[in-house]
Amino acid sequence: MTLSTKKLRQIGIALIFILPALLLFSPFVIIPMAYSFRISFYDWNIVKPELSEWVGLQNYLDALKDPIFQRAALNTGMYAVVTVPAQIVLGLMVAVLLNQDIRSKALFRVLYYLPVITSWVVVSLLFEYMFSGQAGLINYVLRDVLHVVDKNILWLADPILTFVPIHLLGIWKGVGWTAVITLAGLQAIPENIYEAAEVDGASPVQRFFNITVPLLRPTLVFEVVVLTIGALNAYISNLLITNGGDPLDRTHFILTLMYEATFGRLDFGSGAAISYLLTFVVFIISIIQIQLLQKQVEY
Amino acid sequence: MLDKNKIFVLALSVMVIFSLFLVGCGQANNVVEDEGNTVENSEPVENSAPNENEAAEENADMDEPEAEEAMEPVVISYWHTMSDAETAQLDNVIAAFEEQNPDITVEPTRYAYDDFKQAILTGLASGGAPDTARMDIAWVSEFADQGALMQLDGVMDDFDDLAASTFAGPLSTNYWQGHYYGLPQNTNTQVLLWNTEDFEAASAEVPTTMDEFAAVACELTSGEEQYGYALGGTYFWAPAPIFYAMGGKVVDDEITTATGYINGPESVEAFSLLVDLYNQGCISPNLLGGGIGTADGHATGLYAMIIDGPWMVDIYKGNYPDFEVNFALIPTGADGTTSSVVGGEDAVVFEGSENPEAAMKWLAFLLSEESQLMMAEVGVIPTLSGLIGNPALPEYFDIFLQQLETAQARVPHPAWSDMDNAINNAFQRALRGEQTVQEALDQAAAEINDLLN
Question: Which of B10, B155, B310, B327 sits between 20 and 30 A of A296, alpha carbons compared?
Answer without folding.
Answer: B10
